[in-house]
Design goal:
- The chain is an alpha+beta fold.
- The protein has a single domain, classed as 3-Layer(aba) Sandwich (Glutaredoxin), CATH 3.40.30.
- It is built from 4 helices and 4 strands, in the order E-H-E-H-E-E-H-H.
- It has a 4-stranded mixed beta sheet with strand order 2-1-3-4, with helices on both faces.
- A hairpin with a 2-residue loop joins strand 3 and strand 4.
- The relative contact order is 0.25.
- It comes from Rugamonas aquatica.
- GO terms for molecular function: glutathione disulfide oxidoreductase activity.
- This is Glutaredoxin.
Length: 86
């Protein structure tokens, strides 16, 4: 059972694409995407929850991982797979 993964994203976001590819390579299949470009209220919620304005913002389970650079660093440090596997 892999953890629930949520990514705040927009239509045109190269870092969102890279994050999605990395997550897919790790076996994530049910990525939930929240499009903040289509729903301004979701952008406000994202900023309140994360304190950040940029996308992607990634949650694995209840853990806020951050953006693509944070996700990549977590993977390089060996922390991504354990987090995904709950």
């Amino acid at each position: 059972m892999t953890a629930r993964v949520i990514m705040y994203t927009t239509a045109v976001c190269p870092y969102c694409v890279r994050a999605e590819r990395l997550l897919e390579a790790k076996g994530v299949t049910g990525l939930e995407k929240i499009r903040v470009d289509l729903d301004p209220e979701q952008r406000v919620l994202m900023m309140q929850k994360t304190g950040r304005r940029t996308v992607p913002q990634i949650y694995i389970g209840d853990t806020h991982v951050g953006g693509f650079d944070d996700l990549y660093a977590l993977d390089q440090a060996g922390g991504l797979s354990p987090l995904l596997n709950g």
